[in-house]
Amino acid sequence: MQPNNSVTEFILLGLTSDPMRQKMVFVIFFIFYVGTLVGNLLIIMTIKSSRTLGSPMYFFLFYLSLADICLSTSTAPRLIVDSLSAKKIISYSECMTQVFALHFFGCMEIFVLILMAVDRYVAICKPLRYPTIMSRQVCIILITLAWIGSFIHSMAQIVLALRLPFCGPNLIDHYCCDLQPLLKLACMDTYVINLLWVTNSGAICSSSFVILMTSYILILHSLQNHSAEARKKALSTCTSHLIAVILFFGPCIFIYTRPPTTFPTDKMVAVFYTIGTPFLNPIIYTLRNAEVKNAMRKLCHVKITSENKR
């Protein structure tokens, strides 16, 4: 599928060329990446080991944390290493792999957020039918469909990327490989490919955001018939989800739903949803969730007790 290219590697320009700022980039994003790994792994371990976190909401939160780790890992390690490198070289095959991983796990995050919104809608609006509608088997089927949908989306992206011929230059004005900066380097008319790219990624981001907002509007409307305590609990959960949705979809829509133009802020916006949001999600879902915090305390207590017995 790869066209005849005279370019076998690319040079990533990164976030900055200033040596002092590069050191700052290293420190900041090393902390962000370690925080992302620790926070999301702690959520995964807590959900796996806790009997109280067996509901569909935590089943989907498990996969959101997994997607967060993988999405951040697809970009953050290279950004961290490149910040200390004189030449930020990435091979053609590594670049294509990064395009695939970025879109696969980014799309997975979108689909999991939708499933979490659906779960909250059914739990609040159809409480009597909730155990039947959101059974374990149904949840497994839904998450499997999310994996399949993510794979189809990322395959569409990589097919478009592999059709691009590169004759030079090979400087990518970004900190990672994505289709938009690659389109600027292709030695061909990219109008059709760009249209397909915006139609694919832009449609997924926009339609998913509309679906999510509609579901939360319906949830808020249905809460009028609930007690004050039930409204408070439901609003607390939904607020956490809404914060995560806005933080992730705002940058995505900005990047993927516009004509083939670039802005100076593009790289920082991309950093926010590929590295920033995976770092913030564990904070959002633990600080506002008493059940997760209690389960984490119990997990830590069990670990400390078992260590002391040794």
UniProtKB/TrEMBL annotation:
Taxonomic superkingdom: Eukaryota
Cellular localization per UniProt: Cell membrane; Membrane
InterPro entries (UniProt xref): GPCR_Rhodpsn, GPCR_Rhodpsn_7TM, Olfact_rcpt, Olfactory_Receptors
Main location: membrane
Residue span, G-protein coupled receptors family 1 profile domain: 39-285
CDD domains on file: 7tmA_OR4A-like
Function: Putative odorant or sperm cell receptor.
Name this protein carries in UniProt: Olfactory receptor
Source organism (scientific name): Vicugna pacos
Gene: LOC102538790
